[in-house]
């Protein structure tokens, strides 16, 4: 009896897989999203609803994640992002947080198994967030996963851990400021300090020593300018008293001083491109669809920078209950408004 049941399950599973691929083939006739992001909400409510043991909701949520990621990759979506753990979640019961960290490490190891979806679809795993807040064993597991899958380039799974969008933006601004500061320092090194120069004009010695500091440099340059100009005026009256080399050097000093005054007012500024280069999610394009389960429409500090024109789909199903129908509905809605969304993107 059980043998017959197993054969029936295999036939039905194969038929379902075939129908799913046919459905995805039809959806692929028009543009499909390149990046779908998920807020996995409702694991604990599902646990209570189904009277599961502690942690049962999160384990069910992991299985739902594997299913929905498989569907996305079968459809042709290259990037999938999931909000796994917020920085704010550290405020929860320490015992519960520790359980989630242990579960996360266990599931990362499972993802790296030979038969897993990671190897089946050539997925590169990327963990983003303030990872230094995590324990050493969890960080080590994440680093190993990213190292092992770094050569995969067909699909990308981005897992946001110890993440909030506000922290991401602050991090990007800080890194951009550091880059600009290094740029200024490199520029100063490249230009170099102008060495001591002695000129004898009208039996007066003009002593210049440009320091490494912008302020000292500019001050010295300004003090020198008037002396140089006076020297030049004197040279006009007594040109026969000075060599051509001395007058040329004098003119060069005036040009250097004017250029330094001009560049001081041109301090490098942080631009949009600098922020986007240093943002955690620079590894992927902005999401085309954001799906949050359990019927909530809040973003909960997730991808605030990247979702200004991204449609939000909020099915009432809890995260462990998410299925193929929810994904298909979200994709159909995206395709329906695709031309409008593309126009809005071009305006930014």
Work out the helix count. Answer: 12
Classify the oligomer: single chain
How many beta strands in the DSSP annotation?
8
Question: What number is the mean pLDDT?
Answer: 82
Strand order of the largest sheet: 3-4-2-1-7-8
| Major sheet summary line | 6 strands, parallel
Instruction: Provide the CATH superfamily of the largest domain.
Output: Decaprenyl diphosphate synthase-like
Content of β-strand: 5-15%
- Gyration radius, to the nearest Å? 31 Å
Structural class: alpha/beta
Task: Outline the structure in words.
The protein has helices at 2-27, 43-49, 56-75, 94-111, 117-121, 136-148, 165-191, 214-237, 244-264, 272-278, 324-336, 338-347, and strands spanning 35-39, 79-86, 123-128, 155-163, 197-201, 204-208, 289-292, 312-313. The strands form two sheets. The protein has a six-stranded parallel beta sheet with strand order 3-4-2-1-7-8, with helices on both faces. A two-stranded antiparallel sheet has the order 5-6. Helix 2 crosses helix 3 (56-75) and helix 8 runs antiparallel to helix 9 (244-264). Mean pLDDT is 82; it is low at 193-214 and 235-240. The chain is 55% helix and 13% strand. Strand 3, helix 6 and strand 4 (155-163) form a beta-alpha-beta unit. It is built from twelve helices and eight strands. It has two domains: 32-174 and 280-347, Undecaprenyl pyrophosphate synthetase (3-Layer(aba) Sandwich); 189-264, no CATH class. By secondary structure, it is an alpha/beta fold.
